[in-house]
Amino acid sequence: MGNTHARAPPDPAHASELSSYEAACLADADLQSFDSNLQAQTSHAIGALAAGVEVRALSFDSLREVTGCLLEMNQQVVRVILDCKQDIWRTHELFELVEEYFENSLQTLDFLSALDKCLKHARDSQLLILVALQQFEDEDRQAGGADRYARTLEELRSFRAAGDPFTEEFFRIFQAVYRNQVAMLEKLQLRKSKLDKKLRCIHAWRKVSSMIFAATFAAVLICSVVAAAVAAPPVAAALAAATSVPIGSMGKWIDSLLKNYESAVKGQKEAVVTMQVGTGLAISDLENIRVLVHRLEIEIHSMLQNAGLAVEEGAVKIGVGEIKKQLNAFMTNIDKLGVQADNCSRDIRRARTVVLQRIIKNPNQ
Question: How many Å apart are CA 150 and CA 260, to the nearest integer?
Answer without folding.
Answer: 79
